[in-house]
Amino acid sequence: MTVVYNRVALIGLGLIASSMFWSIRRGNLAKEVVGYAKSEKSRDIARSIGLCDQVFDDLKDTVENADLVVLCIPVGVMSEVVAQIAPNLKKGATLSDVGSVKRAVIDAVKPLVPDHVHFVPAHPLAGTEHSGPESGFASLFDNRWCIIIPTPSSDPKAIDQLTRLWTGMGAMVDKMDAAHHDLVLAVTSHAPHLIAYTMVGVADDLSRVTDTEVINYSAAGFRDFTRIASSDPTMWRDVFLSNKDATLEILGRFTEELFALQRAIRTEDGQMLFDYFSRTRTIRRGILEAGQDTEAPDFGRSLTDKNKE
Amino acid sequence: MTVVYNRVALIGLGLIASSMFWSIRRGNLAKEVVGYAKSEKSRDIARSIGLCDQVFDDLKDTVENADLVVLCIPVGVMSEVVAQIAPNLKKGATLSDVGSVKRAVIDAVKPLVPDHVHFVPAHPLAGTEHSGPESGFASLFDNRWCIIIPTPSSDPKAIDQLTRLWTGMGAMVDKMDAAHHDLVLAVTSHAPHLIAYTMVGVADDLSRVTDTEVINYSAAGFRDFTRIASSDPTMWRDVFLSNKDATLEILGRFTEELFALQRAIRTEDGQMLFDYFSRTRTIRRGILEAGQDTEAPDFGRSLTDKNKE
Fold this sequence. Notes:
The structure is a homodimer.
Chain A: E1 5-11, H1 15-27, E2 30-36, H2 40-48, E3 54-56, H3 59-63, E4 68-71, H4 78-85, E5 94-97, H5 103-109, E6 118-119, E7 122-124, E8 145-148, H6 156-168, E9 172-175, H7 178-205, H8 211-216, H9 222-228, H10 233-242, H11 244-266, H12 270-289
Parallel strand pairs in A: 1-2, 1-4, 2-3, 4-5, 5-6, 8-9
Antiparallel strand pairs in A: 7-8
Helix pairs in contact in A: 7-9, 7-11
């Protein structure tokens, strides 16, 4: 593959940044990738596992001479970091991010970006429940979507270049505006996460059912919620605070539907339940066809070898 | 392993029954396993894939001479089936089931069981989102729990024999009373399923977000809900109708908690959100330690090979 940027700077060295590094290296998409993490421990780990060609102790040093700077940090601290690095950003460089929320990021960051820097927000829809510099892997973005959010002043060439980086990392790229992105993500990600956190919280808090029982009998469905609900707390706090309106809108719809189903249970309306549960199978088929999940039986996930013989 | 029963009869040939067959065969736990399915199509499939030593077209023929009869059918039809087979059950035989709900099953079935038959309800906590005779595999129960619910009149020998069958199939066996079982399962399985169905229903029904968007961007969390929400609709309708009280109790608690979290988002109480999201990580660790899930990163499930090189 062709080199897309000479020098890429990754700010924050968690799951996404570390996966970006391995993926850029796999595709030979940049001549050099440098990185910075706020915590010394993360920087030490990064150095010890060869994450980034160079890890800097100073934020400003990290971005100097970088053609692309990517903010891979919680949404809540982005404006603070951009305020610090703005004077050191190279003329003609692109500033991007990987935040799960876009309108709040644009509102907070855009006013701080110098005129000679292209600001092109992006959001790769990929992740695992793990975090930290050691959690990344090169194939994380393969066959996953990355949404690029052009701002009115985004340079088409800068958008095109960032698109090539993401497709080079294996992703499929889509473009949409910030408000629509935030609504779509409230449905596909933010509301499901909050719901999973809630369910796990309820289970943890029941005095009549012990934690051991919850843990032992989790394979019956609950387990999938705990996986989602073990995602990074700081990141998710920031997501909900910065995508407040869309998340609350979807949660409002969710509660309404849940009440309708609770009512069907209470009134023993079996037909309503059956119809509802049949309808939800269609979306699952679409996800399989779109290659966004596998059909392998999953509830017994550690034991999928069909040793029938 | 030692043969536990001479002849086992499986009523219903879906995921659980077919997995039981392959598992019993793997462990050589019965001399003969016969089966019955209501639909001719399922019986034909079973015969074509060698599922069961013999597949009967008639329910009564299936249970004659069986030392163990296991009801692997939706909870809602169990009493109807037991009324049919009761006169043909062998003296001293054990009648068991694999239903996800226990109090309703016992209330409906027990009065129909002849005095000379041992009724020992059970519930293996294992499954996948797939159903039908072709979905089973021998290792489904390995390292999973099976809960046996002794009724006051259950013979200790019959309980012990059934326990040996389940441990022979790879499961760990626990015993509890029906009401407690139903509450534990409402937490670990029934409420999570209803919540997943609800979230998928909401996503499907939003006019401002297209189905294609929901499908493409599902990898960000939503996908796990669709997997749970593609489980068998008939089975789940019956589960909710027959474990109504416990499910509604847990859903009530869930709604209460969800409102508290919604309020924290609305009032921008970041500390409350952070604390909540940190707490839910503990249960996840317990599940991993109990061997009920793997630590492999799962949100990018089809792409877990860490090809860093």
